[in-house]
Amino acid sequence: MNEVPADLAGRPEGPVELPALVVAAARGPLEAVWRNGLGGLTFRDGDRFLKWMPEGVGIPLRDEAVRLEWAGRFHPVPHVLAVESDASGELLVTAALPGRSAVDERVRADPAAAAAAIGAGLRALHEALPVAECPFDWSPAERGWALPHPSIDRLVVCHGDACAPNTLIGDDGRWRGHVDLGGLGVADRWADLAVASMSLDWNFGAGHEGALFAAYGIEPDAERLDFYRMLWNREDAAAPANAEGEPPGPGGGAPGRLRG
């Protein structure tokens, strides 16, 4: 079983201090729905979501907005309504999509079905987004890896943070869309598959990877899974330094499970 990280992102517990950008953008009562390990917060505001990140940490939300606008031409992702910034950080405002996060309590009640929906949704994303038209790169080299690595199985446009929470699932148990695409870019499909399958243990407990791979339509590849999980965890190891505003580690940008 993959060890549950101590800094795993999730719904905030207790009162949450509202950043000024969030207060200014809010139209009604706010519900804090997510906090990541870099201090980022996401709020539901009626039919919109307000995602705030502190200045200088994580993937810039303006970069995520560009990726969402590109991916939205081909696949269900949040529609960007606004991007704002001040000295404290950035705010991304998007329209809500139908469905619930795969880690919503109602979805988690059937983890095998949730894992299958995640696998089917990831396959749909990989089939829909055109590699030849994608201007974004998520290759090992782009992520700071200069040493040999497994050969490419199939290039796709990867989600870039395919952890379980970032798949939305409908009341019928089927995937509905994807959120948090700040790392989206072209890479071997195993870069996504490694993270998606690894995150099942964190969110649902052990024993559900088979459902994900079966729904995606692929047999596990141990070598590629091991490599891309190593690369992901290597990036996560640099997170505390990044969060303090120091230069990123050799893995490059913000760590995946902290992005959300």
UniProtKB/TrEMBL annotation:
InterPro entries this protein is in?
A: Aminoglycoside_PTrfase (IPR002575), Kinase-like_dom_sf (IPR011009)
- Keyword Metal-binding among record annotations: no
Q: Which Pfam families match?
A: APH
One example GO MF annotation: transferase activity
Where do the segments described as Disordered lie?
238-260
**Does Signal count among this protein's keywords?**
no
Sorted alphabetically, the keyword list is: Transferase
Location of the Aminoglycoside phosphotransferase domain: 67-147, 152-228
Residue ranges under compositional bias (Gly residues)?
251-260
Provide the protein name: Phosphotransferase
